[in-house]
Amino acid sequence: MHLAVIATLILSLFTNPVSGSFSDTFADPSVIRGQDGYWYSYGTSDPLREGEKVLHRLPIARSADLVNWTYIGDAFGPDNLPSYAAPGSLFWAPDIRYLDGRYVMYFTVTDTATTPANWDYSIGAATAPTPAGPWTHIDAPVVAPRPSGNSYWNTIDPSQFTDVDGRKYLYFGGFFGGLWVTELSADGLRATGQPQQVAIDNKFEGAYVVRHDGYYYLLGSSANCCAGPTTGYSVLAGRSTSPRGPFVDREGVPLLASRAGGTPVLDQNGNRFIGTGHHAQLTDLSGQDWMLYHAIDRSDPFLDEPYGINERPMLLDRLDWIDGWPAVRAGAGPSEQSRETPVTRGVVDDRFAGDLSGWRNTAGWTVQDGHVRGQGTLISRKSLGGDIRVETDLKTDKSAGIRIGGTTAVVSRDGLTLTSGGTSRTVPLPGGAATWHNLAVTVKGRTITAEVTEARLRDPQASLTVTGSANGPIGLVADGVADFDNVSAAPLFKAVTRAAPTPRTGRLLDADEFTGALDSRWTWVRQDAAAKVEEGVLRWPVQGADLVGADNKASVLLREAPEGDYVVETKVTLDLGEDAVRNYQQAGLVAYASDDDFARLSQVAIWNTRQVEYGRELTFAGRLSYGGNIVGPPARTTWLRLAHHVDPANGEHEFRAGSSRDGRTWTWGGVWTFPKDTAVRIGLVAHGGAQPAVNADFDYVRVYRGA
Q1: What is the mean pLDDT of the chain?
Q2: Which of 75, 215, 287, 525 could pair covalently with 58 via S-S, beta carbons 3.0-4.6 A apart?
Q3: Nearest-CA neighbor of 502 among 266, 706, 705?
Q4: Total-model pTM
Q5: CATH fold group of domain 348-491
Q6: Do residues 638 and 669 make contact, with C-beta atoms less than 8 angstroms apart?
Q7: Domains of the chain by residue range
């Protein structure tokens, strides 16, 4: 291979976590591209390095390429609190936006001085002229604490969204209380009207909303963020035709249902990273979407001492759209190392820090204050053809935009107008572009799309598509004086449209159809005499016992697992009803090494919800640790699968969880691992609570060769 090619490959390689250059932990990241052309990310208030022991109030990092980041300071000093925050209050989960000419950061305030209670969460906001600050607190909470009996709902994890009609919304909430949306005032700094619940409690937090192909997608993080080596955090999605919902998953199951829906977007895959969640999204200069999120290195899960602050560095991976649904790396999950990097420089690429030597027709155009100002037509000396994406930041009181050959896309007081050949269309742009907006034009064959956002965060305020031809010189056009910055033109990304492979079943290796007595291959750990084969099922009354923790009294029914890759499947009917609290009645499959070393896939009642939870218990640093990962929505009868794979690189046993509501359409969740030399058996459990009495009816257990 030529040395230049090798050098290019090395340069294009990046390693997760991308925050490693400046921090050991950088949880709940948000991201925006500033008007200066740099990308900025903001994290939850934690120490940045092991041993530091000092909290940073919303630390800020900056990058030119989204891969190499530098810490540039904190949004606020240690004593810089808003007037309504109690002393010692923490700031969590920032969300960054560019609204009407200024940067607005939303964040969780953990303790509000307006009530006597602790942990009376509220949503605060601050504004700044640049992404680096200086930040000025807003004097009142955007969303005030919301009482619930003797405590307060989780008014946490804000995420702002602006719709095509100019209305601004804020999504917020967490496990205690669910996810909510409220409309905001025109300046984005006050909640107006009545908030509306959009996702059930006890399942989601970390909301993030984007608009894609006419749908609004609500993405939320599920399971536990911070269980150290057993953290099973993941990202799930629902979509709607309205920013207020109702949001449903790929199978049409509502996110507000007791048997709550949610289509997996990001799950741990068996590599070093677990607990993948609380994310932000962005679009690079080629049009490819990316996700920034945090995760936990399972070999180093705590920042300092075990069971202290969870160490959650920031990762970056490609976000694809598969059959209308977002999926990180087409469903492959987090990467440790990637040869795909975001496109952050174009063939045409000008941040206007120098002269206009890269342009023609420069009369009437001047570079000032880091951008170009002028009127008429400014033509780039560089060009590229084929499928491309051209974008610029601009502001104008008149009319200004992008020209590609004979095609123009311009914004004005009338809105966004896209003209190609004899076709011209206009849509409104609420508020116009008197402050900085981003205009992007994509050309794919004869399909030309123009989109206006405030900061490329998948919240288009105007978009248009026409059929035509866009070939020729690339330029900026202005009818009247306009300002432009961050101009780029790059080859359009090639979309990944095929999902990553999921486990499949090969030939049948072993089965018990429960048509007679339990076969001799079953063995019990603490036999339950109440479990009987009758009416073609193994009928097992759910026990008032559990495996989690040190008090191991629950029964486990086990059989030996085959060598190599295999899939174990069962069909279980468990009538847990809906809505009522029945903690934590459950039944399902188990991969079992011991009472304190297992992975359990169950249909389970978690407070008012019914979920398919894939839990893991193990011993770490002399203590038992338990956490869960969430798979697909359950039904009264749910099919469950555990797919076993031996990692050829390290010999680890990887078990991936799958669930189905009909036995045909499968949803695949995360992976839990066991060390190489662990003897793992497979089997069934039915425990978590004996009241009200309920039977778990297992139709069969089948073991297939993995395919």
Answers
A1: 96
A2: 75
A3: 706
A4: 0.97
A5: Jelly Rolls (2.60.120)
A6: no
A7: 13-340, 348-491, 505-706
Residue 569 appears among annotated catalytic residues? no
Phi, psi of 187 (to 5 degrees): -85, -5
Token pair of 391 as six digits: 């974008």
Cα gap 468→445, rounded to integer Å: 9
Residue partners of 481: CB distance under 8 A and separation at least 6? 373, 374, 375, 396, 398
Count Cβ atoms below 10 Å from residue 445 Cβ, excluding itself.
10
pLDDT, residue 2, reads: 38
Is 205 a known active-site residue? yes
Beta-carbon count within 10 A of 554 CB:
21
Residue 543 gets which letter from DSSP? Answer: P
Residue 530 · residue 541 · CB < 8 Å = yes
CA–CA gap between residue 499 and residue 545 (Å, rounded): 40
Task: Flag whether pLDDT at 7 surpasses 70.
Answer: no
CA separation, residue 533 to residues 588, 601, 639 (Å):
16, 22, 19
Give the DSSP letter of residue 519: P
H or E, element range at 7: helix 3-11
**pLDDT, tens digit (0-9, with 9 covering 90-100), for 555-575:** 999 999 999 999 999 999 999
Beta bridge partners of 703: 510, 568
* pLDDT band for position 690 (cuts 50, 70, 90): very high
Is residue 284 within 8 A of residue 37, CB to CB? The reply is: no
- CATH T-level fold of 13-340: Tachylectin-2; Chain A (2.115.10)
Q: What are phi and psi of 168, to 5 degrees?
A: -105, 140
| Tally of CA atoms within 13 A in the half-sphere of 429 that contains its CB | 33
Q: Which of 234, 312, 47 is nearest to 627 (CA)?
A: 234
Quote the CA–CA distance of 450 and 443 in Å, as a whole number: 9
Annotated active-site residue in 205, 311, 512, 652: 205
Q: Is 228 in contact with 274 (CB distance < 8 Å)?
A: no
Per-residue confidence band for 422, with pLDDT thresholds at 50, 70 and 90? confident
Confidence at 9, pLDDT banded by 50, 70, 90: very low
* Cβ atoms within 10 Å of 571's Cβ, excluding its own: 17
Extract the runs of DSSP E, i.e. beta strands, from 270-347: 273-283, 289-297, 314-322, 325-328, 337-338
- Same topology, domains 348-491 and 505-706? Answer is yes
Give the span between the Cα atoms of 395 and 34, in whole angstroms.
14
pLDDT(544) > 60: yes
Comparing CA positions, the residue from 615, 659, 677 lying closest to residue 274 is: 615
Residue 119 to residues 106, 146, 633, 678, Cα–Cα distance (Å): 18, 11, 31, 42
Fold classification of 505-706 is Jelly Rolls (2.60.120)
Q: Is 330 helix (H, G, I), strand (E, B) or coil?
A: helix
Determine which one of 24, 28, 317, 595 is catalytic. Answer: 28
